[in-house]
Hints:
- The protein has 554 residues and is α+β, with helices and mostly antiparallel strands.
- Strands 5, 6, 7, 8, 9, 10, 11, 12, 13, 14, 15 and 16 form a twelve-stranded mixed β-sheet that branches. Strands 18-24-23-20-21 form a five-stranded mixed β-sheet. The chain has a three-stranded antiparallel β-sheet with strand order 17-19-22, with no helix packed on it.
- The chain is 32% helix and 21% strand.
Amino acid sequence: MRYTEWNQQLIAHFTTNVPHGTPIFLTVDLPTLQDIAIRNGIDPEDAERAFCDAVRQEIVVRDNREICLEALRYRDADGRPRGVAFLGLMVLAAHNMGDQEASEQNYFTQLRHLLRLAESRKGRPKGMSPGENAEEPLWKEWQRYLERIGFAATARRGPEGSRKYINYPLSQALLRCADRARLRKHFCEYEWFRTYREPDLLMARLIAQRDVFSKYLQERLNARGDRYAALMDTIHALHQAYLQEGSASAERARNQNLMADLIRYPGGFQKPPTYKLLPRLRHAQEFDAIRVHTPAGWEPLERDPENAGYGLPVGVLRHEEIVDGVEYEIDPPYPYRKLQLLKRPFHILVCDPNDPESGIYQTGRNLATDIHFILIGPSEVLEQMRRLRDLGILQWSQERPLGTTGWIELVGCMILDQDWSRVLIGDTELLNALRPRQSLTIGLTGGLRAPGSRDYLAGFGPTITLYGTIPDVSIRCYRILETREDLVWEGRTRPHEPVTLPDAIQRYPGRYRLEAGDGDPEQKLFTVVDRDSLRRSARTLPGFDATTFTISSS
Length: 554
């Protein structure tokens, strides 16, 4: 493939069928290149060489001694930035650094190696100096493009100094090649064939054993917020691939199941809460005409427009199935045989920060300080939770048995303190699963929007509420334009204090990005649209009924 084709394929790989608002990490590594190669008829063993050659032919000039990025500063005919494949090669260089110190000299040595530059100089290749006039405009164009199409960008420059510009690719390299190899070795040595199949439990166990890993990987395992969630997905995919390649045939068959989370709906008058399976769907997988066989009969497996990354809930679970796990047959049985809820030592279900009053809780959500959750587990878990309560770390409002299973539900749980240094409990998996990975969460509530979208009607924008324990938080709002973004409002607030945006934002159609906190801030995207645009947004939703969706003109 030529450079332009690699560029288009990489953009599609990271943005196709991805829920809007998702933070995008440009994690171009060997598995990513091999996935693209397979889809395009290229030998996966030749993927890295083919990719690097295509980039080299596009940008290396003057007898293989200089880089020219001028042609990458523009967009293609479809409005996509032309520099993404080169940025991907920069991230690949970060992945391939091994255990080297992340210095500017070591980084650019690896970049020059991938481009097979004939120069002997150290540091930046000729044509890439300084960074603010070389690669940084390409990173900013990638950020603007992502925000224009509804995603959150994650690549940022570093602090002043030698790593100021190389922090862009370093921030996107979630797992270096050396760390992948080290983790695979760890899985093999500890025989992780049958255990830790769920992402959060896998991470909890790795964090408990982090002292055996490199300093770089330890820092990654201590990540917070969106970076931690992306790293968890990457490590879980690595573990799944390890199971496919290295475990027994029976284990490989089990790995072909589609995983499910739990969702809990509140009970009504004298009725208990209801638990269902929440299918976890891969963003690139299509699910047309797939059915799940539940005790109530065959139910369709469909994407949920209101719950990004999941299918519509199916089945109604008995208490014993919550404790022991359950499997539902899938038809047709390809690419997955069964929808499976795995047996776990406990379940943590978190409320939606954008709709905390709904009473709906689910597993798989990030647990943040000051957000309500429910914990389900055996009596041993209750004992350890009481120790945390005695330390002032958390609280809950209700304890009740989960039927006759011997498990209990702790309802109304909330983490009160981010300082866990004094916490010593027996179950390190529980401790690491409960430890907050986000210091702040932005909730958007109220307003008038199409269900399943972040398009708000002009004049009826969202109310902002922050969740966390930081007493005084800076908050900023940027309007995203074609070639730049403008800071249109900033202020300070406290957690749980609703913030109404000024009329200049509420009534002005456009794309907006919220930032809360300093350093690596929490982000949230939303759009303000006119009436016609809101109607068009609603019509794209599954099951849209024009007879029931009306917007008053008064």
